[in-house]
Amino acid sequence: MPSAFAPGKCILFGEHAVVFGHPAVAVAIDQGVRVSVEVSDKWKLEGSSFEPSRHPHISHIIQNIFQYTGPPLDIDVDSSLFSAAGMGSSAALSNAFGAAMYAYLNPGEKLDAVMLAKMAHSAEASAQKGRASPTDTATSALGGCVVVSGRAVPGTRHVFDTSLKTPEGSRKWAINVVDIPPRIGDAWLVIGYSGTGSPTGRMVAKVAKLISEVPDMMEEMEAIANVTRAGLVALSAGNLEGLGMAMDACHDSLRKLKVSNNKLDRMVSAARLHSLGAKLTGAGGGGCMVALTHEPTMVSEAIEVAGGVPLSTRLGAEGVRFL
Ligand code: MEV
Predict the structure, then answer these.
(1) pLDDT tens, 14-49?
(2) Is the pLDDT of residue 322 over 80?
(3) CATH classification of 182-314, choosing from 3.40.630.30, 3.40.50.620, 3.30.420.40, 3.30.70.890?
(4) From 11, 140, 259, mutation site for ligand 1 pocket: most ligand atoms within 8 A of C-beta
């Protein structure tokens, strides 16, 4: 049975600003989504009847990418990610489903992570009213640490370029990767789920509305971009303390963009007692925060006390793969 696994992601810096062409830095995490496909007498998803309108990513991949007209499929999904929570669950689902479909239609052929990343990005964009950066999909496809930016980023290796027409205009991104130094790889990320999801499309639209009403807020995007550049320098140099400080600063800017909430702020404050830095991660408005630490157990306990659900991972897991 063709099956594939794609990891989730955690954005260290640059969420929201990346939709406007600024850089973002994300790492693949240990948790992710496994998908397998099997020919069946009718279309099924996780044992129930498949409703294309309720699963826009999957329908986009079946109809628009593969233009599949073969027999119905039974699609089995097994996820260790919280959904609509900033962990890239829809990107991981798109990548894993795309890879499983590719294996089903092209048995024995090699997996092309760049092709998958582009395909999953178009699925995200079609599901998010044309507003989606390639951050989640590229990180899940390539694995490791991915830097997404409107232009080349010094100190990174360029992998591919991609573009998209959004309601706010055309966007172009360069997808780059950076090696994670051993000192950073020894640390842990503890991700804390706030208990409520928040669809990325809605949060991205909320930020777009805020900026159209208060154009000065665009300065906050610049602030996030500066913090992202500083954080990337710290990461590349193996400077954990600098990396943590940049995460703290990124959270402050995201609060000003009104994408944090009380629960996320409480979890971030609780985690900071045993962390090098902490921030919300992903679209915000619910979803998750993340802390960088050498003490994952203490941070997990602090997150639980603040009412969140913790999950620990190393930084920079392997990207999408056939199983
Ligand atoms: C979502 O994980 C991150 C955002 O920047 C949206 C995007 O990049 O498409 C909020």
Answers:
(1) 999 998 889 999 999 999 999 999 999 999 999 999
(2) yes
(3) 3.30.70.890
(4) 11
For ligand 1, what atom is nearest to the CA of residue 11? 2
Architecture of domain 3-180: 2-Layer Sandwich (3.30)
Q: At a CB cut-off of 8 Å and minimum separation 6, what does 279 contact?
A: 247, 248, 250, 251, 254, 268, 289, 290
Residues 6+ apart with CB under 8 A from 209: none
* Of 7-11, 68-72, 77-81, 126-130, minimum mean pLDDT range: 126-130
What is the C-alpha end-to-end distance of the chain, expressed in Å? Answer: 10
Query: Taking 90 as the threshold, does the pLDDT of residue 67 lie above it?
Result: yes
- Give the pocket of ligand 1 (CB within 6 Å): 11, 15-16, 18-19, 86, 132-133, 135-136, 200, 204, 282-283
